[in-house]
Amino acid sequence: MSRTLLRSVLELRSPVMRLLLPSIRPTATTAAPAVTVPAAAAARFFNQTAQHIEPSQPDPSIVANSKSPLASSPSPSSLQQTQPQPSETQQQQQQQSQPLANTPPKPISESVRALLPVLAAQPGRYITVHIHGHPYLVTEGDSVRLPFKMPGVVPGDILRLTRASILGSRDFTLKGAPYIDERLFECRAVVTGTESEPLRIKIKKKRRCRRTKHVKSKHRYTMLRISELRIRTEAVNEA
Amino acid sequence: MTVRALQQISTGRNGVGAFILQCKKMNFHYCDWAGSSRGMNGFIKSLLPKFAAAHPQIEFTVSPRPAKHPVIVAQYINGREKAICVRNMEPYEILKKAELLRDASGEKLKRTTKPVTSINESVRGIWSPYHGDGLRV
């Protein structure tokens, strides 16, 4: 972890990146709304041409929609909304991206306090994580084929998925409105590689014309493996 | 019914616990004389040392193959191998191909429609109309 950070420090080329550095978590990235590229992403590319690397903070408008207390809750629920995090890196990110959202984290509701340890005590769990707005219902050990090739990741990278809408066990379900609190769970995925599909050939033919056009396409997909899914019952006591 | 031995105790799930890169060996073939190897020779000179140093878990070999087009052959843990002909390519195009071979799992390409594959049992079980609240007829 520290090595990755060090490498990213050494490879920094622009002052903009240096400003962003505190907000980048070294081995983990958030999954949504935009998957941030890991810190060492710039160092990973061997070619020195300019890369399209998204800013590490999500778009302020998206943040305003999902994170600010005014806009976030379309329906007041007994569960929790996505709120600024208590961790240091997240707070720095909040300060940099939008000073308005620097409010203290919203307290966890009573029903969650009471029932989350019961949910965590049951053996099997599943979670519906959202990556770029797409939901994936996964359990620990599952393999996910994302419908795109994630830029800037290499096999072995660990992503921390922080956006989830449903967390459940056999008898209990924690539903977010629309997303559950990031403090309540830890979900990590390992990038296992890039898969491809067999070459698709679509034949385009027009009437009364002998010519046929063969359109080829071959998409590439990033494969993830859910390596860790943990319910942070201690977060209930902290908040 | 015959008694059969256990086929396997557990199924490997790469990434749960340890992660192992599936590509184990890469061979780079080049030709000194032919023009289609020009990019490959530049790649071996300029980019390959950096690429190989970044991947200590892969074995790299460079071997001449005179009067043939340049080829990258990658071998995978599952026993398969993939080969890409890189004739007339620029060094950075060849680097892209090498990264493609590194990221691949070695499996045959398959068309899949479901994004999530799981071998875990269903967490919530199978729905039944006769349990829970019951079915009013």
UniProtKB/TrEMBL annotation, chain A:
Short name of any one Pfam family annotated for the protein: Ribosomal_L21p
UniProt keyword annotations, A-Z: Ribonucleoprotein, Ribosomal protein
Compositionally biased spans, kind Low complexity: 68-101
A single GO molecular function term of this UniProt record: structural constituent of ribosome
InterPro entries named among the record's database cross-references: bL21-like (IPR028909), bL21-like_sf (IPR036164)
CC per GO annotation: mitochondrial large ribosomal subunit
Entry keyword annotation includes Isomerase: no
Disordered: annotated segments: 53-108
Statement: the UniProt record of this protein carries the keyword Ribonucleoprotein: yes
Superkingdom per UniProt: Eukaryota
Family to which this protein belongs: Belongs to the bacterial ribosomal protein bL21 family.
Name of the protein in question: Large ribosomal subunit protein bL21m
Organism of provenance: Chaetomium strumarium
Automatic annotation (TrEMBL), chain B:
Any one Gene Ontology BP term: mitochondrial translation
Keyword Cell inner membrane assigned: no
Subcellular location: Mitochondrion
Main location: mitochondrion
Keywords: Mitochondrion, Ribonucleoprotein, Ribosomal protein
Gene Ontology molecular function, alphabetical: structural constituent of ribosome
InterPro entries registered for this protein in UniProt: Ribosomal_mL43, Ribosomal_mL43/mS25/NADH_DH, Thioredoxin-like_sf
Residue ranges of domain Ribosomal protein/NADH dehydrogenase in the record: 32-105
Cellular component annotations (GO), alphabetically ordered: mitochondrial large ribosomal subunit
Family statement drawn from the similarity comment of this UniProt entry: Belongs to the mitochondrion-specific ribosomal protein mL43 family.
Classification via PANTHER family: 39S RIBOSOMAL PROTEIN L43 (PTHR21396), LARGE RIBOSOMAL SUBUNIT PROTEIN ML43 (PTHR21396:SF2)
Designated name of the protein: Large ribosomal subunit protein mL43
